[in-house]
Amino acid sequence: MNTPNVAIVILNWNGEKLLPEFLPSVIEHSQLPGVEVIVADNCSDDHSIDLLQRQFPEVRLLQLDRNYGFAEGYNQALRQIDADYYVLLNSDVEVTPNWIEPAISLMDQDKTIAAVQPKILSYHRKTHFEYAGAAGGFIDRFGYPLCRGRVFDVLEEDKGQYNDRVDIFWGSGACLFIRAGLFHKAGGFDAGFWAHMEEIDLCWRLKNMGFRIIYSPDSVVYHLGGGSLPYDNPRKLYLNFRNNLWLLYKNLPARELFPVLFLRMVLDAVAAFKLLAEGNLNGIRSVLKAHYHFYRSLREMHGKRKQFSTIGKFGHHPEMLRKSVVFQYYIRKRRTFSEF
Asked: Are 155 and 129 in contact (CB under 8 A)?
């Protein structure tokens, strides 16, 4: 394989325990011409830097001056890296032999492909898909993200049912191959997101610019998941609710914008009542805080929407499902993507 200039970039924050476990597989399976492994440290306050310098001298180290969060942390790091392709890789991902070539070959052969996501399986249960990405991301009519292989908290066993190469709506930030030029042309990650759904926002912008996002089952990685914030963390709940509203406001076609947002308000209210019934007061506070900050940011979001209109067009894409995943899951009791 004549590999183009590929930079595998791992954004690290306090990963002293994760790096020795996961970085060796990345180094072992990335020894190809034109491929460089880089760790960008988000101002860790543990012993990550010492560990990297001592145990992994072959890895290039970038030290950021403060913790910028996931979204802006990657923006800061990638501005300093010259490459044809970036591979954005979480610090808790184990890679496998031949994980790079299938994705890079796809983009090399087809210039309309902006990004590729590999098959993402669970590190602890390697027969099953992992929450963050699984076999490629989609979005339903009300903006709820879902994946082939993962709907809400139901994770399917990998039986080869998603071994087809397909267009997807978004690729997971846990492991995402992306053209460097298009990452920057699209504006990179939205720093305001901090973390969670920033990759969906970026992929949506790329699709609105006329490019494709592809899932490749020929590349396989294993993701630990929950490395930064546990899935039930109040902070994570807040970011997911707020960022999802931002996602919709920034990217929906004008004719769908306000009807969808209104229905999302109703659905978020239902979610809040569900949290109340469960006695989850921290969860309710997270939802209310998310909505408060969304309303306060409308002028800023309108400015971002207007700014993007100069390089892309707001439109509908086949990978935006016309169905409601909430209705399918809770009313029709359909638990897998293939049942929709």
From this structure: yes
- Cβ-based neighbours of 299, under 8 Å, separated by 6 or more: none
Domain tally, the chain: 2
36/28 Cα distance (integer angstroms): 12
Q: 139 has which bridge partners?
A: 145, 320
pTM exceeding 0.85: yes
Q: Tell me if 29 is assigned to some domain.
A: yes
Question: Predicted confidence band at 3 (pLDDT cuts at 50, 70, 90)?
Answer: confident
Which domain range does residue 130 map to?
A: 6-223
Alpha helices (H) along the chain: 19-28, 48-55, 69-78, 101-109, 180-185, 198-208, 234-251, 254-277, 281-296, 298-308, 325-326
Q: What is the pLDDT of residues 300-329, one digit of tens each?
A: 999 999 999 999 999 999 999 999 999 999
